[in-house]
């Protein structure tokens, strides 16, 4: 499976299994859930408490407030992203770049087992060989000629693509002063330009599929904050986010049946950032690939356009840049975001492909 690599080694702490995400998840399914909130006044009423009693009034007000918040959240999603499209997995042809390992392979295997037709594009062979329903195509997505050639093969052999998941990425992990020009070019080609190549190649097929389609873009919180030893990666991910938002605006007007999903995770426990120390395991826990995969699969299955951000802090990362510059600098020092890459090792000892001196890995 895609979990062949263990979690990156982290600092020991007594509260390691506990994170703010866990606290919020428990709260959302208890005190902040409308169903639970309305149980309280019902229990009070079962005890024959008068309607005008203070505890009863407070519990009803709280339940009403939580219900309004949930309804407002649902309306916000609908206004922001529109109606979902109908999805029939037996008719879907899903293209996943960088799907030979890590998160990409996990999503590919799940969809393959569930009856969808899956095409994986990668420069390395799939770690476990081709799974049921998954077809591997050797392809360097930073090469537009290879992308065009493989796209023609996919349409001929598997059918018209309906879902594109842009997942491929590489990490050089060096200071800008230490990177060579070929490394910089390779990084930007794979992390940014490849999105343009795959979109230009596969989007026409999605628009003529007759059932609409879904485009999933894997970005990163690093594209919002930047980090030492990640100048190339941060620049590319910032560009990917801007590309996704601009394309979504274009497609809303010209092809409203295309759904757009933007994924902005923090550190994910995959080989891409193996060895990187999370700044704070309580506030910024390492995200398991299965959690990101579940969110992506849920969005695609339900035909949603949406934004996915994991862990919790990733949902609020835009607010970081609103803070005064001095406060941002203090927060960076306290979080250790610019020291995390000092322990970066990537796929140390694992199978890898070298091209122009750069490790080629997938999210």
Instruction: Write the H/E string, N to C.
Output: HHHEHEEHEHEHHEHEHHEE
What count of domains describes the coordinates? 2
Q: Assign the CATH superfamily of the largest domain.
A: NAD(P)-binding Rossmann-like Domain
Shape: globular
Number of helices: 11
Which strands sit side by side, in order, in the main sheet?
Answer: 3-2-1-4-5-6-7
Report on this model:
This protein has 2 domains: 20-81; 89-360, NAD(P)-binding Rossmann-like Domain (Rossmann fold, 3-Layer(aba) Sandwich). The chain has 11 helices and 9 strands. The chain has helices at 20-28, 34-46, 54-81, 102-113, 144-157, 181-207, 222-225, 231-254, 289-301, 312-315, 325-335, and strands at residues 93-97, 117-122, 134-138, 163-166, 213-218, 258-265, 306-310, 353-355, 358-360. The protein has a 7-stranded parallel beta sheet, sandwiched between helices. Strands 8-9 form a two-stranded antiparallel sheet. Helix 4 links the parallel strand 1 and strand 2. The longest helix has 28 residues, at 54-81. The radius of gyration is 22 Å and the shape is globular. The protein starts with 19 loop residues before the first helix and ends with a strand. Mean pLDDT is 87; it is low at 1-7 and 348-363. This is Ketoreductase domain-containing protein.
């Amino acid at each position: 499976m895609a979990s062949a690599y263990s979690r990156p080694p982290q600092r020991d702490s007594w509260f390691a299994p506990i994170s703010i995400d866990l606290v919020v998840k428990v709260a959302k399914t208890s005190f902040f859930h409308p169903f639970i909130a309305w149980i309280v006044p019902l229990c009070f009423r079962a005890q024959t408490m008068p309607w005008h009693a203070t505890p009863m009034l407070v519990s009803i007000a709280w339940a009403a407030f939580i219900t309004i918040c949930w309804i407002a959240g649902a309306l916000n999603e609908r206004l922001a992203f529109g109606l979902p499209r109908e999805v029939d997995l037996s008719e879907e042809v899903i293209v996943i770049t960088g799907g030979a390992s890590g998160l990409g392979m996990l999503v590919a295997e799940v969809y393959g087992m569930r009856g969808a037709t899956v095409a994986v594009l990668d420069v390395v062979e799939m770690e476990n060989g081709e799974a049921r329903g998954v077809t591997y195509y050797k392809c360097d997505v930073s090469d537009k000629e290879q992308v065009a050639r493989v796209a023609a093969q996919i349409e001929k052999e598997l059918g018209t693509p309906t879902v594109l998941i842009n997942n491929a990425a590489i990490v050089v992990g060096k200071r800008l002063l230490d990177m060579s020009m070929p490394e910089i070019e390779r990084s930007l080609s794979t992390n940014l330009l490849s999105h343009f190549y795959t979109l230009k190649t596969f989007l026409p097929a999605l628009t003529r599929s007759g059932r609409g389609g879904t485009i999933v873009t894997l970005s990163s919180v690093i594209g919002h904050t930047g980090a030492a030893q990640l100048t190339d990666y941060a620049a590319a991910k910032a560009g990917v986010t801007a590309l996704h938002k601009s394309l979504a605006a274009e497609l809303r007007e010209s092809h409203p049946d295309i759904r757009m999903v933007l994924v902005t995770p923090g550190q994910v426990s995959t080989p891409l950032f193996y060895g990187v120390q999370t700044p704070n395991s309580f506030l910024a826990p390492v995200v398991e690939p299965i959690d990101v995969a579940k969110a992506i699969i849920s969005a695609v299955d339900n035909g949603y356009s949406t934004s996915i951000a994991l862990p919790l802090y990733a949902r609020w990362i835009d607010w970081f840049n609103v803070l005064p510059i001095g406060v941002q600098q203090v927060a960076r020092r306290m979080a250790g975001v610019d020291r995390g890459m000092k322990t970066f090792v990537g796929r140390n000892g694992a199978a890898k492909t070298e091209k122009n001196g750069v490790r080629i890995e997938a999210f």
